[in-house]
Amino acid sequence: MAAVLFDFSGTLFRVESTESWLRAVLDEAGIALPERELAEKARALEEAGALPGGPPPLRVPEPLAALWAERDRSAELHRAAYTALSRQVPLPDPRLHDALYDRHRTPAAWAPYPDAAEVLRALRERGVGVGVVSNIGWDLRPVFRAHGLDAYVQTYVLSYEHGVQKPDPRLFATACAELGADPREVLMVGDDRHADGGAADLGCAVHFVDHRPAAERPDGLRPVLDLVDRAGGSGG
């Protein structure tokens, strides 16, 4: 196997809880809410799907449906979509909606899965190329650098930088080309069967992991090493 491609959110990293997200922004703004009200606001934001990388919306309002479908094609669309969902929930200061969006782009809002560093390091030691292919509206490279994982990644292919979002096979094709790998010798690892499954249309093998809190998935990535070893190849 020449290379392994990974999704970002729910695969290599997990975003903080909605309550932690809201609490951090309120603290930064110097706004105190009673614990019960804070929990209620966090629950409403979660149901709205306002936290990128968190649970999807229970329902996308009809006026936002088109924007939601295209959200990962550009930074502007991504921010517009998620802040619009956030604004369905009244907050003490309207500026908090943009502050929430800005918070989720910081390394502090993300934690790598417990076995992410081990697996990425092992792949590179085996001579296997590593890429990240993500539907996203912002530059996630600083998150990888802050958590010490950037050294293991050779290429990042991010939807907003290409104007194309998964499952469009062009994103996966770009990653394969940048790694110099034949798609038939590439494994795509992700948590979204629709979006990440698009790699199969290019001829890549696909392996899915569960999008669960990091503490509940301590070794969900380790089977990737078994799959690579069974394939018997390396990037050489």
Automatic annotation (TrEMBL):
The keyword Endoplasmic reticulum does not apply. The keyword Hydrolase applies. Keywords: Hydrolase. It comes from the Bacteria. GO terms for molecular function: hydrolase activity. InterPro entries: HAD-like_sf (IPR036412), HAD-SF_hydro_IA (IPR006439), HAD_sf (IPR023214). It holds the Pfam family Hydrolase. PANTHER family: HALOACID DEHALOGENASE-LIKE HYDROLASE (HAD) SUPERFAMILY PROTEIN (PTHR46649:SF4), PTHR46649. NCBIfam families: HAD-SF-IA-v1, HAD-SF-IA-v3. This is Hydrolase. It comes from Streptomyces echinoruber.
